[in-house]
Amino acid sequence: MKKKAESGKQSFFTKLCLASEKTARVSLVLAGAIVLGIIGTVSAVAIRNNSNVELLSENVELNAAQEYLDKVAFADGESDATSEPEETQIQVNAVESSEETKETKRGGLTGENIVDVKDLKSLSDEDLLKAVKQGKVKVIAKKDIKQDQSQNVNVTHKGSIAEAPKATNTPTPKPTTPPAVAITVTPKPTPTMAPIKVVNYQLGIDISEFQGTIDWKKVKADGIEFAFIRCGGRGYSKGGLYEDKKFAQNVKNAKAAGVKVGAYFFSQAITVEEAIEEASLTLAMVNGYGMDLPVVMDWETGSGYRTQVLKGQDFANVLDAYCTMIAQNGYTPCVYLCSDDINNRLGKYSGQILGKYKLWYAYPYSCYWKSSSSYKSNYYQTGDTIPPRSYAYEYWQYSWHGKVSGISTEVDLNIKILGNTTLKAPEINITNKAPVTSVGRDFNPMDGVTGKTSQGVSTTKDLTYALTNASGQAVSLDQAKQTIGKYLITYTFKDPFRGSITATAVWEVTAATVSDTPTPTPETPETSDPSSGATDTPTPVPESGATDTPTPTPEGSVDTPTPTPTSTPTPTPVPQPSETNGGGNSGSDSNGGGDNTDSGNT
Fold first, then answer.
1. pLDDT higher at 432 or 154
2. Which of 462, 454, 463, 494 lies closest to 200, judged by CA?
3. Which of 102-116, 271-285, 342-356 has the lowest mean pLDDT?
4. Are 214 and 249 in contact (CB under 8 A)?
5. Which residues contact 180 (CB under 8 A, 6 or more apart)?
6. Which residues pair with 283 in a beta bridge?
7. Which residues contact 246 (CB under 8 A, 6 or more apart)?
8. pLDDT tens-digit series, residues 316-365
């Protein structure tokens, strides 16, 4: 009791000092908590007032961005006027920088909806794709796209090789063998072919810088009409972007040689955001070159590829995003896919892509892989089969090991399908099927002979002939011209699409006839004596009994003129003198005659 009374009289400070150990510890903990609370409050205020806001909760910005974007209608066809930017505009505190970084460029929305890429990353691929389709996603400037050229490696194709179906076309007839028996006058008929429908096409290739320096003039001369040229790609392992360093050179040289060009990007995109990156780099590379053909997203996968994870709707979104941006910038989009990508990866979404964009179909046939000293043996030819067309494709890549003049390495071969065409039977048209000449006379068996292709073009190209005698032995043209007999002319015409056909004619060499003997030119007679007064025309020798021969002048006359050959009138008889002495009269008559003759000569 005494202790209790004394305790009641003690002060608060004395009680605190005399408190038990447990009570002291509690008091100290409370005091420390109060002090820490004060310090934390002061620190928070200081941090909030700092200009660098990176330590501020990032979730606050992302949540605000998400709330704003949720209110923006991304549905196709919906107007931006439904949004309320004045009330919901996001305040984004960007990191201070002298220039925009890649993050502030990539995928940023345009117009009133400009946000940081960090906000866009909070969107699903579906929402970002909607933004792309509405044209609200900007193309990333090339300088803002980070590249890694170490990722630029020569990637080999992946996938199975198909066996070509057996052709169902009418077999090409074989050239007929000339008979070894006596020749008849009836030529052998030309083999006939039924009309067939085939693919009308152009030959093409696709190349990258790994084909080295290309002689594009030789490529064009070898029948190549178009080329897809790689402009860049993404690494299949680490995903770094790169550009093809020979793209510009190949495009310029190919176009100069008359080869039409398109571009392709080796894609390894697995998100819509990466598809936007790839489309942006593609657009930067092709800018200013004027593509003749589509711009292609060459999406590929295989064992060890980063793209192995992509399937279904996600795959369709990636393809759609790339192609949409290509189309929005004035180019024709196209996708490069193999049958596995279409059937097993896209699956039920294949119609969503193939119904909107052109398809470059990768489905090589083993028959175009055979190595040969003649590279043309690797080319697709008219009448060859093409893959079953359960879905439309405009370009078909049929070989990964082609050989083309002007390219030192193997190269991918393609055709562009232009539609179907009907090939008729080729023809050999012979104007004269039974020519006859005399021995020694010149003769050209090709005169009046033309070929007509299965596409209706008349030509003498690829038209040849051979001569055989009655025993079936081959003879030369010179031998036949000098030897009497009959010769079979066998014409062969090689149609560029349907093979070779033949037709025949019979040429007969006969003995020379009288009409074949040259008529000698008559010799010119000598000119008569000019003293006679005759012209250069020779005086004909009169035949006896001729009525038009002038009567000769009586004997004793002098200077008897020769009649002019142009007119032969009958002269008037000179009357005989009655006197016996006719010398003077004769002289007088003669003189008179001389005067007449002189007058006539004059």
1. 432
2. 454
3. 102-116
4. no
5. 471, 472
6. none
7. 208, 209
8. 999 999 999 999 999 999 999 999 999 999 999 999 999 999 999 999 99
347-368 as b/e: b if 16+ CB within 10 A: eebbeebbeebbbbbbbbbebb
Q: Which two tokens stand for residue 357?
A: 């964009």
Indicate the pLDDT class of residue 420, thresholds 50, 70 and 90: confident
Instruction: Residue 218: name the closest of 261, 260, 262, 257 by CA.
Output: 257
* Structural Rg of the chain based on CA atoms: 53
Query: What letter represents residue 421's amino acid?
Result: T
| Of 140, 90, 81, residue with least CA distance to 115 | 90
- Cα–Cα distance between 230 and 553 in angstroms, integer? 114
Distances from the Cα of 602 to the Cα of 100, 447, 528, 563, 597, angstroms: 120, 61, 18, 13, 8
Q: Is 232 helix (H, G, I), strand (E, B) or coil?
A: strand
Contacts of 533 (CB under 8 A, 6+ apart): 561, 562, 597, 601
Q: In what order do the strands lie in the sheet with 436-438?
A: 436-438, 499-510, 485-495, 463-468, 474-475
Asked if 463 contacts 428 with a C-beta cutoff of 8 angstroms, the reply is: yes
Per-residue model confidence (pLDDT) at position 92? 30
pLDDT of residue 516: 57
Query: Among candidates 422, 401, 429, which has minimal Cα distance to 413?
Result: 401
In angstroms, the CA 192 to CA 585 distance is 102
* pLDDT tens figures, 476-521: 999 999 999 999 999 999 987 778 899 999 999 999 876 655 555 5
pLDDT of 473 reads 94
Q: Two tokens at 248?
A: 């510009």
Q: What is the pLDDT of residues 450-462, one digit of tens each?
A: 999 888 889 999 9
Residues facing residue 149 across a β-bridge = none
**By C-alpha distance, which of 559, 433, 541 is closest to 487?**
433
Query: Cα separations (Å) of 533 from 170, 536, 601?
Result: 89, 10, 7
Q: 560 is written with which tokens? A: 């008897």
